[in-house]
Write a structure and sequence with these properties.
- The structure holds two protein chains of two kinds.
- By secondary structure, chain A is mostly helical.
- Chain A contains twelve helices and two strands; from the N terminus they run αααααααααααββα.
- Chain A has one domain.
- Chain A has a two-stranded antiparallel sheet with strand order 1-2.
- Chain B is mainly alpha-helical.
- Chain B has two domains: 360 residues; 77 residues, no CATH class.
- Chain B has 15 helices and six strands.
- In chain B, a hairpin with a 3-residue loop joins strand 5 and strand 6.
- Chain B is globular, with a radius of gyration of 25 Å.
- Classes of the chains: A mainly alpha, B mainly alpha.
- The interface between A and B is large, with 80 and 82 residues.
């Protein structure tokens, strides 16, 4: 049986997987507004295709943050204060992006729209980049001292490994978003999504291999969890090949499932490699934050378990229903809100 | 400036800004839900037009409220990591529940509501907006449960130098929450109601869409009257509760340095002198024992002054200054109460006119007053929170942890300065854009459904085909 500490580690992993699976595609669609759309109308179609969902998707991140705060206060405190400046940038990106969806169509002026469009693009590009960097460095190790305080210098955060991981996250989200766009649009837009997805497959494969190699070089992941991670990598290869196959066969739903599967696998891979640590200290294993020394008391964890397991099914239920309500493809005749 | 002061400034700036939008969201969504309910029941298209018009304003406001809320959830860990470590066990739980229970509900059903006008049946669509309204209330409940713990910590035990939760229900039945929740939520309804009433009054003055705006004026005055009275009563309850649990805050809010006689007079205003720890002058309300009434619900009872409390706290908590910034607390309290009082008078007058069926002959001064009164709830909300949070100083969790001990020791003053500057910049832009869009939407009015999009062609592919045809 899982202990409550372990269960909460799993639950937070699930929340992050949910976040990247869902917000991952709307980040991708946000980026693709600059890459696919050639007219303002096309941009609007893309933005409206994620219109009903992006806010609900982002709540997965807020919930993951809240769950970390409640279940592992030391993790939450060390991570958020240690990555102070990256989190400021992340917040600026998410703030600008969130209002941009609502604001961009409200004034019929070229410059106005252009500014908010840049916010959507950068606001969709920066968060996956920063998360990739953060997760890679959490696994690689950060200077966390005996008081659980992290004093990270520039190169602790920005290094070849973290940058490659960040870039991989960005391209993966973009591909996932392209498949979502292909699923929800018609005509030219859909064609261009397919064409770009095609072009992305080889760079993404290279990035995946590079990330795996650098993970072996910079982290202890394969030494600690070698067998499991290699098995997961093998599944990843299968998913990747299938994604390529379904994209070329234009089976968009299946292809979207595969890119989503890749995201889920990548994120859970990080959590598998971390466990039972939540953050690795580069100053010595004694200073690692773990699911035990970072956690709340047993009473808190028990209460939160009951609450979470009661509420999550409802959340999943109504979120799935909302995807069902808006499953139809958008076209030029659809009434657009944004 | 040191990290403590900078972190406090950032927290104050971002939270005050966030709380301009929160009450508008909570208040407007209720009113929009009421309007849509009227539409579904009466099938009168006018209510649909109104729902869409106020819904548009609600959504602009909601977007800013949502994005500034993300920052709220992150900055405990970013700027107050020692605090997060110390109370995360108790304080994190309501935040996580808020996200799971309220944020998911709000965000999913608002998406369904915005995009679902043509996809959902009328009743399901109506249910969506009511679920958003419910979500905003649940959100308020859980975040206030967390805040109430800071005011009056309950349901915990100390373990290894950390506060650990040992009674979840105690957090939810915290006496502080029971008075703070109705006060804040009805304050939010009041904010939404006066925004709607003020804009409607302005439109009535300009004789624009009179038929429509009479309807929204009526609804908002009724909601405004009910809310303003509940805010006053729950405020009175809260003051009495504070006298018991945080007497220092209440003493500072009333400018009481020396413990009062049995029949305590209520000081209308006075000259707070923090150096000599006394008032240079006092102007008392001519009803003796009023402060006793405000504190205990009866006209006798002495109220303990700050100087005596300071001596008590030194004995209890050790040497230190336990008196909060008195001037800020004192004047914030007065501004809040004055704003609330004016709002009650304005809604009483409006309700009286409605009751006498004089909707058509509202005097112009009253409509103008209502237009300017849009600002009043914002003043009261802000000063109310200033009093609550500043008046609790030097504590972040009353009696348990000081604000100075709560900061992130690993974050430099330079980093906090950087974030203050960038957040202030982006928030200023958001604030300006938001006001601009509000004015624009209000000026355009509810009848003009045309948006700029329709001017340059609905069909994006037509352009595309054209280009191809040419090339």
């Amino acid at each position: 049986m899982l202990s409550l500490n372990e269960l909460w580690f799993v639950l937070i992993a699930v929340l992050f997987v949910g976040f990247f699976f869902l917000e991952g595609f709307d980040f991708g669609v946000g980026m693709s507004t600059r890459l696919l759309a050639r007219t303002d109308g096309e941009k609007r179609l893309l933005i409206n295709s994620i219109g009903p969902f992006w806010d609900g998707n982002e709540v997965w991140l807020l919930t993951a943050g809240g769950a970390m705060f409640a279940a592992f206060p030391n993790w939450y405190a060390t991570l958020f204060s240690g990555f102070y400046i990256p989190f400021v940038v992340l917040l600026l990106a998410l703030i600008a992006r969130g209002v941009a969806f609502e604001f961009r169509g409200k004034v019929g002026h070229r410059t106005w729209t252009a500014v908010w469009d840049w916010c959507i693009f950068l606001g969709s590009l920066l968060p996956p980049l920063l998360f990739g960097v953060a997760f890679a460095t959490m696994l690689k190790g950060l200077p966390i001292d005996s008081d659980m305080q992290m004093y990270a210098g520039f190169f602790d955060v920005i290094n070849p490994y973290s940058l490659v991981a960040g870039l991989t996250t960005v391209v993966l989200c973009l591909l996932h978003g392209l498949m979502f766009s292909a699923l929800r649009t018609t005509g030219q837009l859909r064609e261009r999504a397919h064409a770009l997805a095609h072009k992305l497959m080889i760079p993404l494969a290279v990035l995946f291999v590079l990330t795996a190699v650098l993970t072996a070089v910079y982290t202890d992941a394969f030494r600690v969890r070698g067998a499991v991670l290699i098995a997961m990598a093998a599944v990843g290869v299968v998913l990747f090949v299938l994604a390529g196959y379904f994209i070329s066969k234009r089976r968009e739903g299946w292809a979207f499932g595969m890119t989503g599967g890749l995201i889920a696998l990548a994120i859970s891979g990080i959590f598998v490699a971390l466990f039972p640590r939540v953050m690795v200290s580069s100053l010595g294993a004694a200073y690692d934050l773990t699911v035990y020394n970072a956690a709340s008391g047993p009473y808190s964890l028990k209460v939160m378990t009951i609450v979470a397991l009661t509420l999550l099914p409802f959340v999943l239920g109504y979120q799935i229903w909302s995807y069902f309500v808006f499953h139809k493809r958008l076209n030029e005749k659809t009434h657009l809100e944004y | 400036m040191d990290v403590i002061m900078l972190s406090r400034i950032q927290y104050a700036l971002t939270t005050v800004f966030h709380f301009f939008f929160v009450p508008v969201s909570i208040g407007l969504v209720l009113l929009v839900a009421l309007l849509e309910t009227m539409y579904v029941i009466t099938k009168n298209e006018e209510y649909k037009v109104l729902t869409k018009f106020w819904g548009k304003l609600f959504l602009i406001n909601f977007a800013v409220g949502v994005v500034t809320g993300i920052l709220q959830e992150f900055q405990f860990g970013m700027n107050w990591s020692n605090y997060s470590r110390f109370v995360g066990d108790v304080f994190g739980a309501p935040l996580a529940v808020e996200a799971l229970l309220a944020f998911f509900m709000e965000s999913t059903f608002i998406g369904l509501w915005i995009f679902g006008w043509e996809r959902l049946s009328k009743k399901v669509h109506l249910a969506c907006i009511w679920l958003v309204a419910l979500g905003t209330m649940l959100s308020a409940l859980w975040i206030l449960a967390a805040n109430s713990f800071m005011q009056h910590p309950v349901g915990f035990q100390m373990n290894n130098g950390r506060a650990e939760m040992n009674d979840f229900l105690a957090l939810l039945t915290n006496g502080q929450l029971l008075v703070e929740f109705p006060h804040t939520v009805f304050g939010a309804y009041l904010t939404g109601a006066f925004l709607m009433a003020g804009v409607s009054a302005y439109k009535l003055l300009r004789r624009k869409d009179v038929q429509l705006f009479r309807k929204s004026f009526k609804i908002s005055i009724i909601v405004g009257l009910i809310s303003s009275l509940i805010v006053a009563f729950s405020g009175h309850d809260q003051a009495q509760y504070l006298v018991q649990t945080q007497p220092m805050k209440m003493a500072a809010a009333e400018g009481i340095w020396q413990t009062t006689p049995e029949k305590a007079p209520w000081m209308l205003f006075g000259g707070i002198d923090t150096d000599s720890r006394s008032n240079s002058y006092e102007v008392n309300f001519p009803l003796n024992g009023l402060l006793s009434y405000l504190s205990y619900g009866k006209f006798t009872g002495s109220v303990t002054g700050m100087n005596e409390l300071q001596a008590q706290y030194e004995q209890k908590y050790g040497a230190g200054d336990y008196i909060p910034p008195v001037k800020t607390t004192f004047w914030s309290f007065r501004f809040m109460v004055a704003g609330g009082g004016l709002l009650i008078l304005l809604s009483l007058y409006g309700a009286w006119m409605l009751a006498r069926r004089k909707m058509d002959s509202m005097p112009r001064w009253y409509l103008w007053a209502m237009t300017y009164a849009i600002a009043l709830p914002f003043i009261s909300n802000t000063t109310g929170w200033l009093m609550t949070e500043v008046g609790r100083q030097p504590w972040s969790v009353f009696g348990l942890m000081t604000t100075a001990d709560s900061i992130s020791p690993n974050v430099s003053a330079g980093s906090v300065l950087f974030s203050i500057i960038t957040f202030t910049l982006i928030y200023s832009v958001l604030g300006a854009v938001m006001v601009y869009l509000f004015v624009k939407v209000i000026k355009k009015g509810p009848r003009d459904e045309q948006t700029h999009h329709d001017h340059h062609g609905n069909d994006p592919f037509e352009m595309e085909e054209l280009k191809h045809a040419v090339s």
